[in-house]
Amino acid sequence: MGHPQLPTTESAVLAIREIADAYRLEMKVTDDIGADQTSRRTAAGAFTVLDPDGSLPHEAYVELGGSPAVSVQLFPEDDAKITVDEVEFPDVPRASVPAFLRSVYGGTAWVKARFFPPGQWLIVPLPGDETYKELILRGALTPWLARSIR
After folding, report:
1. Of 31, 73, 77, 23, the residue nearest 51 (C-alpha)
2. pLDDT for res 95
3. CA–CA separation, 94 and 13 (whole Å)
4. Could you tell me which residues come within 8 angstroms of residue 125 by beta carbon, excluding any fewer than 6 positions away?
5. pTM score, two decimals?
6. Given a cut of 60, is residue 97 above it in pLDDT?
7. What is the mean pLDDT of residues 63-72?
8. Which residues pair with 130 in a beta bridge?
9. Between the CA of residue 77 and those of 17, 20, 83, what are the distances in Å?
10. 3-state class of 14 per DSSP?
11. What's the Rg (C-alpha) of the chain?
12. Residue 131: CB partners within 8 Å, gap ≥ 6?
């Protein structure tokens, strides 16, 4: 199942704002606009604001209040890094961010624990057989993650 397209960083921020409103979460947004401001523009020259094609790259960092602690860093390259209670999910497609957040706040995300070899993973299922899974580092099990163990 495809996700609604989010062609710009601003459209993704608006989609996140709708989710924050639906779940009554505080939201703080920091925008960086211009090649000299965004984090992945290492090839841009000093004091360069535009990309070679003349566009302004736009990056945003969104913090959502509540439990779990979630932050979303939206990159100009159509992807995002989502952090849920210090568990990082790099390279999430921008179009998947709203479904990812609905899974986390809607209660379908869960923690898988294994005794041997020992380990715990945060699993975030999305509609259409898309699932994200990241290892939880030892000692990083927060109360929200502990409540989500299955």
Report:
1. 77
2. 94
3. 10
4. 103, 108, 109, 131
5. 0.85
6. yes
7. 94
8. 126
9. 20, 24, 18
10. helix
11. 17
12. 123, 124, 125
Task: State both tokens at 18.
Answer: 């709708």
In whole angstroms, what is the distance from residue 141 CA to residue 138 CA?
Answer: 7
Task: Name residue 9's amino acid.
Answer: T
State yes or no: pLDDT of 47 exceeds 60.
no
d(CA 22, CA 24): 6
pLDDT of residue 117: 81
Q: Residue type at 94?
A: R
- Residue 110 structure tokens: 């869960």
Q: What's the CA gap between 111 and 36, in Å, rounded?
A: 39
Tokens matching residue 2: 């495809």
- Which residues have C-beta within 8 Å of that of residue 138, sequence separation ≥ 6? none
Complete DSSP assignment for 23-90? TT--EEEEEEESTTTSTT-TTSPTT--S-TTS---EEEEEEE-SSS-EEEEE-TTSEEEEEETTEEEE
